[in-house]
Every structure is written in structure tokens, then in C-alpha cells.
């Protein structure tokens, strides 16, 4: 085995372990903090939505204004420190009250914002485009793997413990991230690009529009899906949280398929994914029982699995290595902006029309964004690779 292939495999293993640790912990925090706030601290839907928005607001600040401005060497140090902060936030959440939970979420939001975009960049640092796209699909598959391991572990924990205890049990998973953080690759370039020229990058625009078609509803799911299942079907804690498992299992299978056989032409996979999203949002509204509700959520796991890796591939096709950190940071920042706005909006609207209808009307921005995306890029080589 030559040294370049050995180096690629080593990087892939580190990337998988780091991604699973970071994303499993991140998902647990973003989905369990709302449950802790609502059922342990007795906050209203509106305050739960605002708390989730606060977490992603500071995530947005980190990805938009801090990470793009750091040079590669300093960014690596901050990356390591951020993993330590994430680890420390877990016992603090366990000890939190109705006031301190807001403060902890600020620091956790910043830390996650300085970790996740650098993992996307690390996944795009292979020497050739085919390896880059395969590594990006592997990164996305690792995200989905973590989103099976984490929720499955949490479902088991909730059969024995309450929401507070979950944070303590995730400490070993966060420790893995702290151990590996210093070994993750960062771009080896003297000068990296950022600012307006990068914001106008075609890959960033295409990736952001593509991911909007799914992350608008997913932002609502992260905060409110378990709450919706619990309240609508009168479920115990572990059954309500179980709703994430079929969703993430289907996402994992989709991304695994894309890792084994990456898409060259992204046009039809994007179109099919959006159609599934629209059908799934209507299915949430009309599902008559928990079993059908689970089937609908599993269906929605397909576009969750496909759209994010396609968006990162669009970015890789239109950026140089010097641009990639800033583009991935702005891309992550945009995603965080969605997760800031959508939960807060859904929280307030649900007080008036209920959670089911609030989530289902998200089909409107999905359709609008899809039309804009395909109008701009239907024949572009960023999705139709020639």
C-alpha cells in the first residue's frame, strides 16, 4: 500500500471517529435541551423555541464571524479547546436550572460552531476530486451513523433515567472527540480566502439553496419532533424519542449508498429528495396513529440523508482549497441561521395553530426554495457533471 493511500485511510478513520463523537454529542444536546427545558424545567413552547434559537444563534456567530477569520494554525487550537468546552457543558447541563441553561447554551453553541465546519473542510482535503467526493460522502455517512448511535443510546437511557441523566452518559462519547481533535487535518495553505468574494461563490449559493429544501423542516424536527410525538400520541419519554431512530436509520442507509456509489449527476436525486420532503410534511399532518407517523418520519430520512452530502459536493466542485474553510464556515453559518429562525418561529406559531400544522406549512418555503434552486442551476455543471 503506497503512502498516499495509507494517509487517506488514516485520515478517513480519524474523520469518522471525530465526526461520530462531535455529531452524536451535538445532536443529543440540540434535541434533549428542549425536552429538558419543557418537561423538567416547565418552560413553554415559545421559550423552548427561543432557547433552541439561542443555541444556534451563538453557533451562527462562531461560524460566521470567528471561524472564517482564523488562520489554519490558530483555528486548529480553537478546535481543540472547543471540544473541551463541549465536554464540560455536559455535566453543567445536568446541573442546570431555568436560568443557567440559557448561559450554558451560549457557550455550547459557540463551541459547536467552531467544530462542525472544520470537519467538513477536513473531509474535502484529499488530493483528487474523486477522493474528495467519496470522503465527503463518508463524512455524511458518519454523521448519520452518529445519529443512529446517539438516539439509540438515548432511547435506552430514557427507559431507566430522566432527561438530566442523559447528559452525563454522553460524557465518554465527548471524551473521544477531545482525544482525537488535535489529529484532525486542517488546510496547509499560507493564505485563505474569506469575505464578499467567497460569499458570492457559486458553490456556496447552490449548496445553501439545496440544503434549505431540507433543513427548514429538519430545524423544526430537531426541536419539536419528540415533543410532537409525545403530546400527540400520549407516549412515554423513550417512545417519544424513538421517533428519531427510523429517521436516522433511513438517512444512514441513503448516505452509505452515496458513499459506495457517489452521484455524478445531482439533478434527479435533488428533485426526488424534494418531492419526498413535500409528501412527508403532508404525511405528518395526516398520520392517524403512531405507527404511520413513524413510517412518514422514516420516509423523511431519505432526503435528510441525500441533500446534505449533495450540497457539500456542490461546494467542493466550485471551490479551491484556499476558499474552502470560509465557504464551509458560511455554509454552516447559514444552516445555523435556519436553526435559529425556524424553531423560534414554530414555537410561537404552535401556540396558535398547534405543532402538526405549524410543521406542515413549512412545505411553502421548501417549494419556493426548490423553484429558485432549479431555475438557477438546472443545467449548471455544478449539479450536471459533464
Automatic annotation (TrEMBL):
Pfam families: MFS_1. The chain crosses the membrane at residues 47-66, 78-95, 101-123, 135-154, 166-184, 204-228, 240-258, 270-287, 293-315, 327-349, 355-378. InterPro entries: MFS, MFS_Exporter. It comes from the Archaea. The keyword Metal-binding does not apply. One of its GO terms (molecular function) is transmembrane transporter activity. The keyword 4Fe-4S does not apply. Keywords: Membrane, Transmembrane, Transmembrane helix. This is Putative MFS-type transporter. It comes from Saccharolobus shibatae.
